[in-house]
């Protein structure tokens, strides 16, 4: 507030796209200001226009897009009027951007060191032999170990976190004044996320840079930024200091978003907006219930893959440095756990820890290498996956998938998809009876009946998720495995779906195995938690115990990595 | 890296084996009497029997196969009925003519198609983009022998610019001293400017025909590949870093876009080697394609068999080269732990 | 409930009415595809009723009117035996079209099913199909077709067989790749959970998703098939004179092209070009509809 000329001044910005259906206004009358040295977060769900705004600032909009109205000024310079040559000299040198999915953001067939040199020489920061030295120096500054060696590496040889550091190096190489970070940590593990965000904040502070962080995660925004701008459907709905947004949001949308963001100490119902009734008829929530009848008993479960091809690539990602190469890769290394009737058990860990492999084995979609899987007293582990599909036992264990789009046949209508298990394994026969049952299920999951005859591409993410849930509960299973069921959904939709899942569990008496990497979500839904790492169980126990007072160091690290804003007197 | 190249070599071996087996089956496992085919339509009964025992066609199949492979190893592809010469010698003599024509056609095609595809991708919906798409679709639809005939009609008959389509040289010139067998190269090396021009004159139309034919898939693939790469994440990063249009288009986009194009070359070669036969017929080009076609008309079977085998072996070798080239330029394939 | 703002379909999503409406929407959006489709209909018509409506008997020779250029009496002129070129070109449509359809049907059955099985089941099926495809691919395709027809004999059936064999690898590859991508897709896993056996999943769930892409391939292959057959006929393999077939007609007219009687080879060549062009445009248009990302 002490700067006369803000570093970046966006006034009344409107961005239009030419599409097959006519002109679409992705961003409308947006006002954003950022001063020197400030950190600003732009928060919104999908379709809010947050990324498009930053693309407009850098003038790297798609061919079909253009700035229709408004003005953008960077250090007083009119961005809309600037020539392409002027913009090119600004990009990378005065303002730069880092993107989601770091490995894809790097040229796959060019050494990373050379890519940094390209940026340096383009903006005349060094030349000749000094180029290489400077590039190595920058790699060092982003905390890449052995920078001289890594200079010669190709992106496919580096881990996701390292790739992101290289992308940061590219962005910071010429010491720009403004850094725009577009969802830089989405897709990264929560521990890697923390390291990357800490690095960004440290480097930008050191250089007195301003940062714009674009994210869908309010928690992340509030933790790392001074001010927050909230966008919805192309409009800015609220701008305030982080503390204000977090503690006392004003706009209804911000309030809804704030409520929907899972945080420690919340209850499931708290996620829903205040004025919206629960999605399904309320059933009394049984608190403090005791679950002691074992339903699923897993003992010393092992899954090995021969170390060739894809597994080899996976192996490279886990290894920290050179190590002897055993013939096989142990995705799951002898784990044991139990899920009791009526219980909801969370299975958490970072990518590659083996949780998905475990859940797929329990589902009997792939075969185990060793160990036992007992379901309600029957040894299902020994039945080959191929044969399991047509057994009556199949009905009793079902799954809700992570990607609602991928898990629905593009050529089946919603009702056909829901009817599939009923037609194959159910007892209901006859077209009308099956249809009636599907409608009953649709009602149970809160899917309006008129959507039943739509194809997946005509449904929203939340609606597709409901179809997937309806299909999973169609046969009244005993155990439902939920594999990151809300990871692909907006946070407000997630709030509704999580509540739905809880209500269904209660009313239908099911047990859940909830696989997730998001500890906050697990805390809301699960009675017990199992923490996995590198194919082994690190810790397991009641949720309050594991997530509030963890025994293992790894669990502590995981919890510490979750962004949690701390507000001191100065407002940040 | 040598290891990777060696692996590629190993992969080529089953292909060669397959080729040998298939050509063997094609010639021995014919409906009717193979001996009669080899003896020719004018042969008497005794001649047929003589051929039968001479070629070992009365022996059991596995034994025939061993003999076939042994013959191949010695370079024996049988003899032509019409010329009486060993097929292998004829093929060796005529190969440079086909090779020169095919290579020239390919070079012209690449020189036109690649820039066309790149420009079409970097300037979408422009005139050149539409031109590229029309060329691609039309080029794939034109029968290559028809294109050749049209070119002859227009440039020889109507305009009189090109010489009559009668072979590699006109009646007044004689071939240069044979070093590579490529008239263009040999004449230059021998300092015979006149011969060079004469050879070039004869080469223009047939090479152009082949070029037009192979232009289409290359331009199409280049354009598609370039479009895909230009909308990729890493090109977005390059643009966001302010890199110059040249660096973005060439160093970042083009090099990545060329990878699928190199792989497509294998398919292009397959088409080219086939089209070669047709073009040689139109232009009376004395290559191995017309050798085979003449033999076919005369029901002379051994040359056809030798031709198929030679073409296949050449194709396997070409694919191997392309594979190795790809390995050299894509580090992801080169660096295999 | 968020996101209720999606456009509601005006009427039902399934049934003939919906299919026709969809087709009309697609065709109006893609003028070029519409044009290609119109051309396709013309070709089919020519193939079906051509022989009944042509002015002259395609096989009737009349040396008194040999080598006459195009005129009102003979729209495309006459060839060296006095036969009417126009009639021959129209009648040849049936033969060439038949060869194309038969080859494509055959290769779809052989290559499509083999490829889908290889991609979906993997294991030995995949290995065997791969080996067969690789062996065929080791040859320049036209050369292999030459070899097959030369070995088996000059008949239309053998041209069809040779064309089918030569196109097998491409088909099998496309089918295999499409099936492979879907093999472990979410909805296939879900189908397993719903009690579907592998075969049922392949036929009822995966195949309907693959069909559009296979249709695109089929259209493109029709073009290759015609060119292949014409090429074989041009060098004397396959169709024999005096049968009217575009390739043979170009071959017969080739010698006359050099001496100025261009019409004998020109019109069959143009007919070839139009037919192949039509199938390629149709295939491209269908590809745009089916998979907008792969727009050429």
Short description:
The complex is a heterotrimer of chains A (572), B (337) and C (296). Chain A is of the alpha/beta class.
Characteristics:
heterotrimer, B: 337 residues, mainly alpha, C: 10 helices
Question: What is the element layout, followed by pairings?
Answer:
The complex is a heterotrimer of chains A (572), B (337) and C (296).
Chain A: E1 8-19, E2 22-34, E3 39-43, H1 50-58, E4 65-74, E5 77-78, H2 84-90, E6 95-98, H3 112-122, H4 129-141, H5 147-150, H6 160-172, E7 178-182, H7 190-206, E8 210-215, H8 218-224, E9 227-232, E10 235-241, H9 242-247, H10 252-260, E11 294-306, H11 310-318, E12 328-340, E13 344-348, H12 355-362, E14 370-375, E15 378-379, H13 385-388, E16 397-400, H14 414-425, H15 431-444, H16 461-473, E17 479-483, H17 491-508, E18 511-516, H18 519-525, E19 528-533, E20 536-542, H19 543-548, H20 553-561
Parallel strand pairs in A: 3-8, 3-9, 6-7, 7-8, 13-18, 13-19, 16-17, 17-18
Antiparallel strand pairs in A: 1-2, 1-4, 4-5, 9-10, 11-12, 11-14, 14-15, 19-20
Chain B: H1 2-28, H2 34-39, H3 45-54, H4 61-73, H5 87-122, H6 127-141, H7 144-158, H8 183-189, H9 193-230, H10 233-240, H11 245-282, H12 288-297, H13 301-329, H14 331-334
Chain C: H1 16-29, H2 31-53, H3 85-121, H4 123-137, H5 141-152, H6 156-183, H7 186-193, H8 198-234, H9 246-258, H10 263-290
How large is the count of helical segments of chain C? Answer: 10
Give helix and strand order of chain B, one letter per element, not per position: HHHHHHHHHHHHHH
Name the helicity range of chain B: over 70%
Detail the poorly predicted runs of chain C: 1-10
Pick out the low-confidence regions of chain B.
none
Amino-to-carboxy terminus distance of chain B: 10 Å
Number of strands of chain C: 0
Give the chain pair forming the largest contact, with residue counts. B-C, 60 and 48 residues
- The computed structural class of chain B is mainly alpha
Structure notes:
The complex is a heterotrimer of chains A (572), B (337) and C (296). With 572 residues, chain A is α/β, with parallel strands linked by helices. Chain A has helices spanning 50-58, 84-90, 112-122, 129-141, 147-150, 160-172, 190-206, 218-224, 242-247, 252-260, 310-318, 355-362, 385-388, 414-425, 431-444, 461-473, 491-508, 519-525, 543-548, 553-561; strands at 8-19, 22-34, 39-43, 65-74, 77-78, 95-98, 178-182, 210-215, 227-232, 235-241, 294-306, 328-340, 344-348, 370-375, 378-379, 397-400, 479-483, 511-516, 528-533, 536-542. In chain A, strands 6-7-8-3-9-10 form a six-stranded mixed sheet, sandwiched between helices. In chain A, strands 16-17-18-13-19-20 form a six-stranded mixed sheet, with helices on both faces. In chain A, strand 19 (528-533) and strand 20 form a beta hairpin. Chain A starts with 7 loop residues before the first strand and ends in an 11-residue tail after the last helix. The mean pLDDT of chain B is 86. In chain C, helix 5 crosses helix 6 (156-183) and helix 8 packs antiparallel against helix 10. Chain C is 73% helix and 0% strand. Chain C has helices spanning 16-29, 31-53, 85-121, 123-137, 141-152, 156-183, 186-193, 198-234, 246-258, 263-290. Classes of the chains: A alpha/beta (572), B mainly alpha (337), C mainly alpha (296). At the B-C interface, helix 1, helix 6, helix 7, helix 9 and helix 11 of B face helix 4, helix 5, helix 8, helix 9 and helix 10 of C.
